[in-house]
Design goal:
The chain has 2 helices and 8 strands; from the N terminus they run ααββββββββ. By secondary structure, it is mainly β. The two termini are 31 Å apart.
């Protein structure tokens, strides 16, 4: 890959275009187990708890459906319950392995750990509609 970048620079080609073309194809369904700490409750973590209550630790199965991709840009829907799908948008960074993105009330960072494996961490603050505070990490596998 370094040789490709060196040749692109020598020819005056934009390196960002090459990095975008080299983005891995992530389209499809990815799913896996997640451990979460949560203050309060939200659609992924229902209950009667408030943000002032003791935090809970939960395990859920989380799914991302990468419905579209244009180079390093990706988008789709995520859910822990198919009845509550939430849109997301994300970008694969120049290193080709890191992904950053957001949904309607939080943000995530992902690391591509292999052709069919992504490590994902998600957070959101109490500023969203549910006012819950969440931090969660897990591993997604393609086609699960």
């Amino acid at each position: 890959m370094r040789l490709v970048f060196a040749i692109a620079l020598a020819m005056g080609l934009p390196v960002t275009a090459i990095a975008q073309d080299a983005a891995p194809d992530l389209k499809g369904m990815w799913s896996g187990p997640f451990r979460t700490v949560i203050f309060g409750q939200n659609p992924h973590h229902p209950g009667s708890e408030t943000v002032t209550a003791t935090p809970r630790v939960r395990e859920i199965t989380f799914t991302l459906d990468f419905e579209g991709q244009d180079g390093n840009l990706i988008w789709g829907h995520s859910w822990s319950d198919p009845a509550g799908k939430e849109p997301f948008a994300a970008t694969i960074t120049a290193d080709g392995k890191t992904i950053v993105g957001a949904d309607t009330d939080g943000s995530f960072s992902m690391s591509i750990a292999g052709p069919d494996r992504i490590d994902l961490c998600y957070t959101h603050s109490g500023l969203g509609p549910s006012q819950s505070i969440v931090s969660s990490c897990g591993t997604l596998e393609r086609g699960q």
